[in-house]
Each structure stands twice: as C-alpha cells, then as structure tokens.
C-alpha cells in the first residue's frame, strides 16, 4: 500500500479526522514534500474543515543529525479554514482533545535543545471563515498572505512578517511584524483600511436595540512588547471612523458622526494605563427622546436593565469595583467636539415638544484621572437663534465640588410655549431670554446666583395651567422703563440630602417670586416713584370728607406719576366705609353745623354749650350725646346724606385726577357693598393694580 493510500485510509487514527488529497510526493534525498488538493473533513466526513491547493516543504534532512532543524522553504497556497462556533463549542474541539497528551503519565526526557533555521516561510491567498452560529454571523477573511524570509535560533536581528488580507464585506488589513525569536522582543504595525462596521452589526445587536450599525474604520496601530509576556505590550497609534451612523428599531438615526479621530498615546493594559493624546469628533448628531419613565438612549442600549441589575449589587461588590477603578489611570490630553447637533423631544405635557441644538462645540485640555480640577468649555446655537456659552469645572476625584458658569443670549421664549401653557397657563407670544448663572458646589452644598433678563416679552393668558401662575401680571410689574425684566434667582441647597432636587429648588424659587410679585405689586411699583409702599396702598379719610385732603392730594399725585411711568398699568381707587358708623359721624356733623349757624360757635371747641344745645333740641338731658344725636337724626334722611357725601368725595377725587392728567385711566369707584371689609372700616381709599384690559 502506498503512502498516500495509507495516510488517507488511516487518517482518523493518525490525526483524528478523515482527510483526502490529490497528490503526495516525498523526495527522501532532497527532503522535499509536496501535497496538492488537500482536504480535512468535519466529523461528518463530507463537509470541508481545512483545505489547501498546494503545500511545499523543503528540508535539509542531514542537518537533523547535527541537532539542527532546517527548513529551506515552506510554501502553502490556497488555504481555507472553516471555523464554527455553536453555543460554547468550536468545530475543532475534537481535534484538540485527540491531540492532547496525558502529561501526567508521559515522562519527558531531558534532551539537548534543537537549533533551528527556518527560511522562506510563505502563506499565499489563504481564506479564514468564522461562522458564529450563536448570532448567525459569518466573518470571511480573504487573500491572506505573508512571507517570512528567515527565523534562526541565534539571529541578532528581528524576523519580519508582512501580512495582508481582505474582508469579504469590505476593508483590508495589512500588518508588519518584527520578532526576535531569541529573546521574544517584537514590534508590530497594523493598518486597517476602510473596514465596514456593519460586519460587526450582529455582535452589537446583543447590547443594543438597533437596526443598523454603519461606518468605515481606518487605523494605524503600533504594538511593542515581548511574546513571552504579551499582556504587557504597549499600544499606540491612530484610529479614524468615518460616516458613523446607528439607527433604532424604527430606522430613525439616533447617533452619528461624520468623522471621529483618536490618537492613542499609550495603552498599557497590564498597568491599567490608558492615555489618549487627542479625541476629535466632527459633525455629530444625537437624537434624544425623553418620556416620563426613561429615554430612548437608555432603551436602545438596555441601560434600564443594567440599572436594575446594578441595584442588586452588594456592598462588597461595589467596594471591589471601586477598588479596581482606583487603580486605573486615564488621560485625554485634548478633547474636541466640533459642529454637533442634538435634536431633543419629549411629550411630558401631553404635547410633543421639539428643540434643536446645533453648532455644538466642546473642548477640554488635560483630563486626567489624577487631576484635581478639569475645565470643559462649550458653545452652541439654540433652535437656530439663541446662543449658549458654558464653562464647567469639576474635581474628578470628588464630584461634590464643581463650578458651573453658563450664559444664554437671545433665547426665543416662544420656543418653550408648550411648557409655559401647561404649567403656568400662559402662551408666550414673543420675547428674548438672557440668562447667566454662576454656581459653586462645595462638598455637596450648592450656591447658585442666577440672573435673568427678559426683553420684549408678550404673554396671553388662558384658564389652563397646572399651577396657573399670575405670570403675565408679574412680568408686567417687573418690567423696567425699557420694557425689560431683570430677575435675580438665588438657589441654595445641600445636594447630599437625597430629598433635594436642584430643578425643584429653581422652580420653587421662581414660582414664589412670581406669586409674591403679583400678590404685592406695591412693593415693586413704589420704587418707580420713590414712594413708601404704604402711600400707594391706602388713602386714609374721614367719614365727612367730600374733597381730597392735602395729604390725600400728595398720594393722588404719586398715583398720577406712577401711571405715567408705568404704561399700561390699571389703577383703581376703591372706596370703603362702614355706612352705619358713617351715618353717626354725618349726623354729628349736621348737628354741629346747625349749632354753628345758630350760635356762631364751633361745637368741637364748645362741647358744654353744644350738649346744652343738643339736649334742648331733643327735649331730654338724660341721654348720651351719641343717643341724642341719633334721636335728632330721625328727622333727617341719613341714607341720602351718606350717599351725597360719598358721591361728592368720589366725584371730586376723580375730577382732581382728570385735572392733573386729562388722559388718566385711573378710576375712582365704590367697593361692592357685600365686601366684608366695609364692616368697622373708617372711610378710606384702597388702591388695586392690574393691567389694562387691552394689553
């Protein structure tokens, strides 16, 4: 039986699998072996596992007797290897088992080591096919070739291996390895050209709910180390990804970048050191959708599931994680994001809210894990109009210490009309918003000074609104002579308290300011006329006044001045008086007037004579003065007198206002008789403030 027939027939016993080949030639004199059309089958004896077109091995047999292994040539062409992963098993596991020796029962004798000389090692047009059946994905490496001129046991220079292959789905990889077989030192240069990322789509799908994963990767990676301690190798180089894009399950683009460049300065896995010299991301796009429970990015990347799992992590686990994290050193010397776009949307109010951020710039220098302070700068365009400029400083070692400075200009208030309508019951028709905040966080305690400037704001009210804040009137009051609203909103709180929510603090502070402003408008209006708020709140009168007193006139003058200074302000002067008490006072005044007519004396300065006069009129001296006046007044129409007094007071007051300003819109009116404030009240004017109806 020939060698070929013997080997094929007994291949399972010899090497663990059935094989077949076309030609087998062995020259015993030259030490040359040639095999063509070789096939190794799967256990089913039908499917190819490994095959190649031709193998040539040229040895120098005689040097074997000098304890030297010499290969003049190894040439392998057309190699095809089919690797399959199913669950956790590979299709070559049986071969590994077959060729695994029982080292415990086999005694290896000490022998003198061979000296080896290997020349002209060449692999040409090889193909490796990796079928991961767990995710139904096939990776096909084509046209793999390399050539090694020489490897010797005593060589002083490194051997060079140049490898190049293509991926069937797109892209190629070329590499150059230089290895010293004596001491194991090596260096490698690996270049990836136009590698299509969609080839890895099915691997990414395990961690993300996506429909596509696209982009092209180019890289130039340098690796140096020792093959005996490969884990201590040092990696550096450059990585570029172009036209990166991911779409969600609805085929909507949610993450993209035109260009991403990473310059790796040093990756030292063994020492947990990761240094990136520069990270540049250009023309990015992010779509972010927020709902009341989560957001689209958490859903896509399954972070909600991760958070649930994280909640079950024990204290010991966390301590272990924290301890490992402390040992990691990372650095980004230069970070730059250029021309980013973020589309934000939510339906928290029941209506869809969309907002567009563009021209996003972000940069930072020297982000180190050991840094005590890191500054990040950012600029962006708000809905194609407003601008935002930010500087954020933080201590990476302790995030309870930070500084946040943000300036917003020309933010269009109508952009947030949906929120204003829902929460405050107002439609913002127009207006520009300017905002500046300086926030310091020290050991978790926040101190924030917020300055807001609102220009040319116009608001309409409706009956809706979760809180129904008097925003329209409050902003009207807060406007200065230029129509601008300047607000200072300080925020204080302890972030270490889990019940503290910064957003709620800001909202509550703003809400309280609006409510207090609308509830006590006098506090804001008094400053316009350099007046005491009390002067603009109430004018004290007597029951018998029919014309404004000198003091009242001064207060009325301030109201005229205020009306002129605050265009659109509605002022109403409302008269209150206890009519029963006023009747008594008027009756006394009428009797006093009669006494003056008949005696030519003032009853207030002649009380004894007045009492005698009064008792004579009622023909009784046993009554009190008050009761005597009431008895006398039974013949008087006091209701008519009270009405006459009050009418004259209101008319004369209104006439005075018109005399001072013929165009005044200040109204003097009588309070509703049902108002409880009449009871026990002296005669007085109370001022109310609002906006004119036509505004």
What would you note in describing this structure?
By secondary structure, the protein is α+β, with helices and mostly antiparallel strands. Helix content is 24%, strand content 44%. The chain contains 16 helices and 28 strands. The protein has a 24-stranded mixed sheet that branches. It has a 4-stranded mixed sheet with strand order 25-28-26-27. A hairpin with a 2-residue loop joins strand 6 (80-86) and strand 7. Helix 9 (471-478) packs across helix 10, helix 13 (579-599) crosses helix 16 and helix 14 (607-618) packs across helix 15 (625-633). The termini are far apart. The model has no long low-confidence stretch (mean pLDDT 86).
**Radius of gyration (Å):** 47 Å
**Category by helix and strand content:** alpha+beta
% residues in beta strands:
35-45%
Total helix count? Answer: 16
Unreliable runs: none
Please tell me what the overall shape is.
rod-shaped
Largest sheet: 24 strands, mixed
* Mean pLDDT across every amino acid position: 86
Which short descriptors sum up this protein?
695 residues, alpha+beta, 24-stranded mixed sheet, 4-stranded mixed sheet
What are the SSEs and their pairings?
Layout: H1 3-9, H2 11-15, E1 19-20, E2 23-27, E3 32-41, E4 48-59, E5 68-77, E6 80-86, E7 89-90, H3 93-99, E8 115-132, E9 137-152, E10 159-167, E11 172-179, E12 185-196, H4 201-204, E13 210-226, E14 234-248, E15 253-268, E16 273-290, H5 296-300, H6 303-310, H7 315-326, E17 329-346, E18 353-368, E19 374-382, E20 386-394, E21 402-412, H8 417-424, E22 426-442, E23 445-461, H9 471-478, E24 484-494, H10 502-519, H11 522-525, E25 538-540, H12 550-565, E26 569-576, H13 579-599, H14 607-618, H15 625-633, H16 638-660, E27 667-670, E28 684-691
Parallel strand pairs: 5-8, 6-8, 16-17, 26-27
Antiparallel strand pairs: 1-3, 2-3, 3-4, 4-5, 4-6, 6-7, 8-9, 9-10, 10-11, 11-12, 12-13, 13-14, 14-15, 15-16, 17-18, 18-19, 19-20, 20-21, 21-22, 22-23, 23-24, 25-28, 26-28
Helix pairs in contact: 9-10, 13-15, 13-16, 14-15
């Amino acid at each position: 039986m020939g060698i070929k027939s013997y080997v094929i027939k007994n291949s399972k016993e010899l090497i663990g699998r059935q094989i077949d080949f076309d030609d087998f030639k062995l020259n015993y004199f030259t030490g040359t072996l040639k095999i063509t059309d070789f096939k190794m089958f799967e256990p089913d004896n039908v499917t190819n596992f490994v095959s190649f077109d031709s193998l040539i091995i040229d040895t120098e047999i005689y040097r074997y007797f000098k304890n030297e292994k010499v290969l003049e040539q190894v040439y392998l062409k057309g190699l095809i290897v089919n690797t399959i992963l199913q669950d956790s098993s590979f299709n070559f596991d049986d071969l590994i088992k077959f060729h695994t020796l029982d080292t415990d029962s086999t005694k290896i004798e000490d022998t003198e080591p061979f000296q080896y000389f290997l020349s002209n090692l060449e692999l040409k047009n090889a193909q490796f096919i990796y079928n991961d059946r767990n995710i139904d994905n096939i990776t096909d490496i084509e046209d793999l070739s390399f050539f090694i001129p020489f490897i010797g046991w005593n060589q002083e220079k490194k051997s060079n291996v140049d490898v190049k292959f293509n991926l069937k789905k797109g892209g190629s990889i070329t590499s150059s390895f230089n290895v010293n077989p004596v001491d194991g030192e090596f260096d490698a240069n690996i270049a990836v050209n136009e590698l299509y990322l969609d080839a890895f789509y099915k691997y990414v799908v395990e961690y993300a709910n996506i429909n596509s994963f696209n982009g092209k990767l180019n890289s130039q990676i340098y690796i140096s180390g020792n093959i005996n301690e490969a884990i201590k190798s040092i990696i550096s180089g450059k990585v570029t990804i172009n036209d990166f894009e991911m779409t969600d399950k609805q085929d909507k683009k949610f993450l993209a970048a035109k260009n991403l460049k990473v310059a790796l300065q040093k990756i030292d896995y063994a020492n947990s050191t990761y240094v990136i010299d520069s990270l540049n991301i250009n023309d990015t796009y992010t779509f972010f959708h927020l709902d009341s429970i989560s957001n689209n990015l958490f859903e896509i990347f399954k972070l909600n599931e991760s958070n649930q799992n994280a909640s079950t992590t024990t204290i010991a686990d966390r301590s272990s994680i924290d301890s490992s994290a402390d040992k990691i050193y990372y650095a980004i010397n230069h970070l730059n994001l250029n021309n980013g776009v973020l589309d934000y949307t939510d339906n928290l109010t029941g209506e869809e809210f969309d907002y567009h951020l563009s021209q996003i710039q972000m940069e930072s220098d020297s982000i180190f894990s050991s840094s005590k302070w890191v500054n990040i700068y950012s600029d962006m365009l708000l809905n194609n109009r407003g601008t935002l400029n930010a500087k954020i400083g933080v201590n990476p070692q302790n995030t309870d210490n930070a500084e946040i400075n943000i300036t917003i200009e020309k933010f269009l208030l109508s952009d947030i009309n949906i929120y204003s309508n829902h929460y405050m019951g107002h439609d913002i028709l127009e207006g520009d918003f300017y905002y500046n905040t300086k926030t310091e966080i020290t050991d978790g305690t926040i101190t924030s000074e917020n300055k807001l400037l609102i220009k040319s704001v116009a608001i309409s009210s409706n009956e809706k609104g979760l809180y129904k804040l008097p925003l329209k009137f409050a902003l009207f009051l807060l406007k200065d002579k230029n129509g601008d609203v300047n607000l200072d909103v300080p925020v204080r709180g302890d972030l270490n308290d889990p019940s503290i929510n910064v957003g709620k603090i800001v909202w509550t502070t703003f809400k309280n300011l609006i409510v207090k402003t609308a509830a006590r408008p006098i506090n804001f209006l008094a400053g316009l006329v350099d007046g005491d708020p009390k002067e603009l709140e109430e004018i004290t009168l007597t029951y018998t006044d029919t014309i404004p007193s000198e003091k009242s006139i001064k207060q009325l003058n301030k109201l005229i001045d205020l009306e002129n200074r605050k265009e659109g302000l509605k002022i109403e002067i409302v008269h209150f008086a206890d009519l029963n008490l006023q009747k008594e006072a008027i009756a006394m005044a009428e009797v006093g007037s009669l006494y003056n007519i008949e005696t030519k004396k003032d009853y207030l300065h002649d009380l004894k004579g007045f009492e005698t006069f009064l008792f004579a009129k009622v023909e009784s001296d046993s009554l009190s003065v008050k009761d005597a006046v009431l008895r006398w007044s039974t013949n008087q129409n006091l209701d008519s007198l009270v009405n006459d007094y009050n009418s004259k007071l209101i008319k004369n007051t209104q006439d005075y206002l018109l005399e001072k300003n013929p165009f005044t819109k200040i109204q003097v009116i009588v309070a509703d008789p049902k108002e409880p404030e009449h009871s026990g009240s002296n005669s007085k004017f109370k001022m109310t403030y609002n906006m004119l109806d036509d505004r």
